[in-house]
């Protein structure tokens, strides 16, 4: 069958060895000039295109590349440059572009936020006061480049106008039609110029369609695509959605575009169900996202090829493109270079490059070509992984299979625990504490490097960590903090530290993905059943406690944060894996309690970011996420005080779930919320212990006592003073030593001022 072709939606920009990051950072540091930056990035960009061509991908996207972020690119293309940057119109200089992304001497950076439910962050376009103008036709330039330099007839990718505007800020949503009207002519011009160039197809990304859009949104979308359709004659539009199922499938399928791309991996079966129910317009092309663009595993080619054949049948002769569920931006570049992993794991991986092979294989198979041996290799790799001992820890499986039998409630409710804890801890009114980490100085990082390279023995490094702990216990005592921490000097990262000590995790050497700008992360891989091996934090915490009479709070990363910041195996549900992690952490909690550490903080900064894109799916996620937290924290005595911490202040819409965590004390980031958080407690009472961060840890500025006093005053207008704690917004690992000491001194002084007055 010739009406099935392979296609891609976007390729990682960062290069096999993060050359992209290195070039950009060298440019920022003044080590290379602008022309050299252009050359180096061009090499990566063309390399990516060539790779896709060599692999046999038929539809190759262009303009998916960027110098920082594709939303910032789209904003720059339309002249959306915040007022505070001097800009005279015309093509946006690189210095302005990077200024918006990172701030410069002239002005502060634009806000950055998460790209849907991924860990990619985009720069939020600021539309206030903007008269859009077309500064450059980026997709056209990318198309020409691919054609002239490589002979590739690429498919330009554009961010959809509606998604772009919905992700922007600085306009009155009641006037959205006016905003659309001001951008639409420019958007049409971009497309018209592509048409005039002879381009046959463009990919327009509208992932907003998989969120909880309403009928009003749909109307706007209809007008936009009708206008586009009016304008064009020979250029076809592939309207691409991803990260879930589309709302309003029948209406979306009926939009006046020539093709529609759907995600058949992260749609919970809903896109397929919609196809079964409503069919698909035969004259359109269906982009069938059947290879997971978000995860790192080989696909089950048998399963995906039967999914594909069902899709092919359902569309009754319409053209089908075999493609990933989303851009491959969210996976690392290649698994080829992973030489240190266990073979059974390595063989089961498919990063971007390997996913291209899978797309081609599925396409060939669907077109009746001979691929049996490749399918067999893939089948064997997956079955070896699933048969591996790491995936078959019976002790873990049987507990999780009967998770309802596991304790998930503290013995008594909070009011009883509160009395018991007051008696035990005898803390002062408005107790002070910190969130866990203290500055990770260059000295500390250098010490860890020496240990990792084998220049230092483990005991040498252990001694060094103890020295840091001693230093900071005495600093905290001297400052007068009430509940101390050991400082987390032995940890690089909140998840990696635990992953390295638990069974079931693996770490790649080059599995980087872009998080924001040039910043890349290397998430751990949860590939086996997660199990506790031995205590992970007891030694350092107990050592810290031995140095002081004040309580030292133990410090763990919670199950949902570990889950959300890792690549997770796909043969089990995320819910199931979160319970495995929770049960392993419970053992750590119990070990700490047993060793006399009776205040234990279980951080969940990533709870919120796991929220599904559709509101209707929130409850299900929150229910199991809360259960996972409670599984890890419920078996302790009444007098043992469980803390938790979250780094955001958007709280009101999930406050019931946060309350349901039943943590004795929660600390949350507040100082940058300009009182919004405090305001939200006017409407919702919070019945457990709570510390609203009294100072911003993202800045080196030392806040004054009075500033913090006024933060506390405001908070106490809506929160019960008996339940209130005083702490910074978050951990202090990125701060300098002196500013940290000075800030904490002021924080304690602020608490004391209050105590005197009350
Ligand atoms: N305990 C961690 C720290 O202090 C918490 C960090 C976080 O919430 N992201 O660094
Ligand atoms: Zn935090």
UniProtKB/TrEMBL annotation:
GO molecular function term, any single one: zinc ion binding
Residues annotated for Zn(2+) 1 binding in this entry: 645, 647, 669, 730
Chain positions recorded as L-methionine binding sites: 435-437, 488, 603
Statement: the UniProt record of this protein carries the keyword Cell inner membrane: no
Cobalamin-independent methionine synthase MetE N-terminal domain: residues covered: 7-314
Keywords: Amino-acid biosynthesis, Metal-binding, Methionine biosynthesis, Methyltransferase, Repeat, Transferase, Zinc
Catalysed reactions listed for this entry: 5-methyltetrahydropteroyltri-L-glutamate + L-homocysteine = tetrahydropteroyltri-L-glutamate + L-methionine
InterPro entries: Cbl-indep_Met_Synth_N, Cobalamin-indep_Met_synthase, Met_Synth_C/arc, UROD/MetE-like_sf
EC number: 2.1.1.14
Binding locations of Zn(2+): 645, 647, 669, 730
Residues noted as binding L-homocysteine in the record, renumbered to the chain: 435-437, 488, 603
Binding-site residues for 5-methyltetrahydropteroyltri-L-glutamate, renumbered to this chain: 18-21, 114, 119, 519-520, 565, 609
Name of the protein in question: 5-methyltetrahydropteroyltriglutamate--homocysteine methyltransferase
Native organism: Paenibacillus zeisoli
